[in-house]
Amino acid sequence: MDSTKRTRELVFDAVAADEAMSRLEEYDCDTIVSLLPRMQKLAAEKISDQLRRSAATEPLYLNGMSIPSEIMLHVFKLLDLESLMECRLVCRLFHSLVRDSRLWTSLPRATYIGGGRLAKRGIDLFETIEFVSRYPKLRDWTVPSGLDFGRVPVDAMDALALAVPDTQRWHSFNNQTLTREHVARLLIGWPYLRSLSVVSAALPVDLASLTHLSVRAYDMFDGRLPVIQSKSLRHLDYFGVGIHGTINNLLNKCPNLETLSSALTLDEALVSDGLRSLKVYFVRVNDAISACSALTDFEYDVIPDDEPEGNWSETVKNLRGGSQDSATEIDLQLFPSLESFFITDFKDPIYSNSLRRLDIGIFYLPYGCILSKLEWLSVKDSETDDERDTPNDKLLLKYDKCHWPRGLKTLRIQLRDKMHGSRLCTEFVKEVIADLPELRELSVNAVLDTNVYSPVLTELAVDGFQDWPNIVRTVRGSGNLRVLKLGIGQSKTGLSNAFWDDMSLSIDLAKVKIMVPLALRTKMPPAFKRMLLKGKVAYFDRSKTSSYGHYNEYFLWPQHD
């Protein structure tokens, strides 16, 4: 033990490690998940001499591949500092990594906030250059918010380009406006630049090798996207009131464009064989997207009362719409390939023989909907002015009129706050399980005051249980339950140290993965961290959603090989 302590004193700098951990940004989750089994195996061995010797003299390997140092940092972060010390993963390699800024390909978050070097007001270009030049491998970074490009000579952009020559993704803040000349110099100076996000009154006509362009109009009320042309551009995000020319003209000048997101009005029928994703504000024309043969994702905000007639799309699979009046609701049968639909509100029944996923901002489907293949449903119970003082027992009557398809396999429910801890929530969850015999996954932001049973349920996500025995009874009575997520809403009920101590001793929960939100990783007690190292619990991340309202869940599950 004394030897271990002396080793830690020699090779471990707690201040440097804490600073590095706080600065790390989230890495690609798939890569991290693939690395965790290997890291968990190393942690489980707890052979300090072997770890210290191997880590100090050679890199760690995964399936015969050397683990890049930058990824190692992110894996260390997920295991958290306390766990690293417990598992003897504090070694010379880790110490050198957290001290070596040359490894960073993106600037740490701490750079832009608080007392960070790039957070101060009135920072000039040369201060920025002096700082970023310390990161010779920098590829993805954001301009300091205090930098005023209006005072930056165009010639000075050459010095910026030389300081970080490998830049691939560059972002500026919305209050910074670049001229055409500024952008042109950057495109010349950064031959590897692929993604650019700027506020600009004008852009160079030729966008060089850019594949991603995000541009905000300088004048939101009178701005126009300048004429651009690019054979390399794949994704364009434009926020402004208009463009010079037509959207078809833009597609012709950017023949490989796959994604177009804008606040434009669609007042012409588009023709494209390459466009795959389209977002617009208004749709005013017949057959607006019927000639886009590759289009799979379509998003709109408003369709006027005089809804366009004609065909919609044979290829669109994902559709997202804004709030509509009954007079302007789209007929989903005009999208024969539709699989996913997100909409905040609608009043009339909807019909679709292909729809599998439905995400709505209301709680119940209008009576008469025909959705023969629907398997995934997300609903939200929003409080109206008329219901603000309605007692909970009367609100339950509303829940009885949900008319959810009995063939659902996944159901996600967001209840209003006043129902969050009500006993009626538990009764409602029991009724839902009883009414949906094929339900495999259920998520509801409620604290249950008793146990629930289901012979087919494989995943249950709730805010928590009022007491420990009800969790045990729920698991015992649900023979196929494999995943239990806690803390999905605002409440942190049941996440105390005593709670996890009881769970660590439970035999009944051995078959179930107990998961908590990744956002709570810094707040979890020591008992949870000990279980994490043994592979009995895990984190999940629901902070990221796709553009169509679907949760992308990353299961950070340490396992033993």
Automatic annotation (TrEMBL):
User: Which ranges does the record mark as transmembrane?
Assistant: none
Q: Which residue ranges does the record assign to the F-box domain?
A: 61-107
* Classification via PROSITE patterns: FBOX
**Do you know which InterPro entries this protein is assigned to?**
F-box-like_dom_sf (IPR036047), F-box_dom (IPR001810), LRR_dom_sf (IPR032675)
Supply the name of the protein.
Answer: F-box domain-containing protein
**Organism from which the protein derives:** Sphaeroforma arctica JP610
Organism phylogeny: Eukaryota, Ichthyosporea, Ichthyophonida, Sphaeroforma
